[in-house]
């Protein structure tokens, strides 16, 4: 089964074998859905909290009832972390929920948890509208470190401050980067964990939403409709791809064979291998739409959410198979 979040129809469940659709929690805004290592489905909602569905016992349990859960992460240890719209992070362990991050100062009454990521050493990284930091679990105790932020591109460089990040990415070797008006890399060389927005990634201030660290530690990121990669001390630009990326790049991921998967707004999904354009998959190839909102690799398949439905692309660079659920199947306008 494939679970799809919707802003109007709750959680939509697609039977990938039979093609049937059913809706759960209709009328509820669902932010995201994912499956943990035990097979439980987690549905993160606006107002109903986080809902865990056990497909084997057929039971449903609601955590954080009447709360807006904006991010959920299942750690490799099996712990589940919830982020909420008021900046708190709570831990679910052995059936009990405890708080591991208190709300920060609400500068404009908006300090939602934007992202939760686990690094190679098991630390949990969080980002909000106003701060970013690390949670290390030491038994039942949470050791929280809020990070500083520096921007070497500005005249105020050297003035460490707190600052929020839009998105985070972690790598296999312990790398952590974040994005907002550029790419900031984590360093521990200043006496305190600090994200530094580096000129070598991007010298101008420009919003970035889709950082990604590949299997070799290269950092990929986007500036509107342009793709970039920082590798071995050098930034690589891909100007020839601009015509393939629609109005902007929306997501970046990687297949097990190293092929890069790039979601675009207006031109479907494009694929790169060895820094060369391989192919594009869009409506003509069977996708329901070309405004891609997420392109997520699962094994050798790519799960794609668009403005007109969803699809699963199997063997995208070979004998491609596309299974689509769109308006004719009762699914559209996610």
Explain what the structure shows:
By secondary structure, the protein is an all-beta fold. The protein is built from no helices and 32 strands. A 5-stranded mixed β-sheet has the order 16-20-19-18-17, with no helix packed on it. The two termini are 18 Å apart. The mean pLDDT is 83.
Overall pLDDT:
83
User: Which stretches of 5+ consecutive residues score pLDDT under 50?
Assistant: none
Determine the N-to-C terminus distance: 18 Å
Widest β-sheet, arrangement of strands: 16-20-19-18-17
Helix- and strand-based class? mainly beta
* Proportion in helices: under 10%
How many separate helices? 0
Main β sheet profile: 5 strands, mixed
Strand percentage lies at over 45%
* Annotation, overall tally of beta strands: 32
Radius of gyration: 20 Å
Tertiary shape: globular
């Amino acid at each position: 089964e494939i679970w799809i979040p919707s802003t109007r129809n709750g959680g939509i469940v697609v039977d990938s074998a039979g093609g049937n659709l059913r809706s759960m929690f209709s009328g509820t805004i669902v932010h995201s859905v994912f499956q943990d290592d035990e097979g439980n489905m987690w549905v993160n909602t606006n107002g109903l909290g986080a809902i865990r569905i056990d497909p084997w016992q057929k039971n449903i349990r609601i955590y954080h009832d009447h709360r807006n859960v904006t991010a959920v992460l299942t750690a490799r240890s099996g712990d589940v972390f919830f982020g909420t719209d008021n900046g708190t992070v709570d831990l679910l362990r052995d059936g009990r929920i405890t708080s591991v991050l208190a709300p920060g100062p609400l500068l404009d009454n908006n300090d939602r948890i934007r992202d939760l990521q686990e690094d190679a050493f098991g630390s949990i990284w969080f980002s909000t509208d106003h701060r970013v930091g690390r949670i290390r679990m030491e038994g039942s105790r949470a050791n929280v470190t809020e990070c500083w932020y520096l921007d070497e591109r500005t005249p105020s460089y050297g003035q460490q401050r707190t600052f929020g990040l839009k998105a985070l990415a972690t790598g296999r070797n312990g790398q952590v980067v974040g994005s907002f008006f550029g790419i900031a890399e984590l360093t521990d060389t200043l006496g305190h964990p600090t994200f530094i927005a580096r000129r070598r990634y991007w010298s101008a201030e420009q919003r970035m939403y889709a950082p990604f660290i590949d299997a070799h530690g290269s950092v990929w990121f986007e500036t509107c409709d342009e793709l970039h990669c920082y590798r071995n001390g050098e930034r690589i630009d891909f100007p020839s791809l601009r015509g393939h990326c629609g109005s902007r790049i929306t997501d970046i991921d990687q297949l097990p064979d190293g092929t890069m998967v790039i979601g675009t707004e207006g031109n479907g999904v494009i694929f790169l291998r060895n820094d060369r354009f391989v192919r594009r998959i869009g409506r003509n190839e069977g996708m329901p739409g070309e405004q891609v909102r997420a392109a997520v690799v699962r094994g050798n398949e790519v799960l794609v959410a668009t403005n007109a439905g969803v699809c699963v692309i199997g063997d995208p660079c070979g004998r491609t198979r596309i299974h689509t659920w769109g308006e004719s199947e009762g699914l559209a306008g996610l």
